[in-house]
Amino acid sequence: MKKVFIFLGPPGCGKGTQTDVLSKELNIPHVDTGSLLRENIKNETEFGKIAKGFIDKGQLVPIEVVQSVINERISRPDCKDGYILDGFPRSIEQAQALKNMWENSPFKFSKDEKVAIYFDIPTDVLVERLVNRRSCPKCGKIYNLKSSAPKNDGKCDICNVELVQRKDDTKETAVLRFETYNNETKPLLDFYKKDGILVQINANQSIEAVYNELKNAIND
Asked: Is there a catalytic annotation at residue 133?
């Protein structure tokens, strides 16, 4: 299957978990902004040095830098058969920039080979997920104290270190993040619906059920 996926959905909707599973099954890269920036900073690339300068000052990395990092990543040979974009685009402006990247990319994908997946979930469910979310500070694995708790209470199954709660995983911050998503990112749904590549799935299910619905959607 040759395909480009754009995963859309508010923080905590579960798209990260589904990305990991799907990328392994299809053997295509998981392209996410955060990991790419960290990779570039670690390797001290030109973009990494610029990004680090902003991050060290507590400032947001300019979108031009983010777009350049994304464009470089999806131009690598391992992306020739497809990839999953997670966390980009986040706005109509970025979606237009992505279209330009595709036009100038060494790898061409037809309209039928592109799909935007929206992980739909009610606000109250989302807030509860975020409040109960914990992560491993060593390997980054994410758990949920209710739906996907670690085997050993409070410790990572892989690293056996104490799990931590992100500072912004509070009820107040979760509600604010959801509102921000609705205002800034949700317009992308209309954008990709007009393009005829939007698919909506119910993210308020078990991980297995969501994945089955995802697989059915992309195989239709």
From this structure: yes
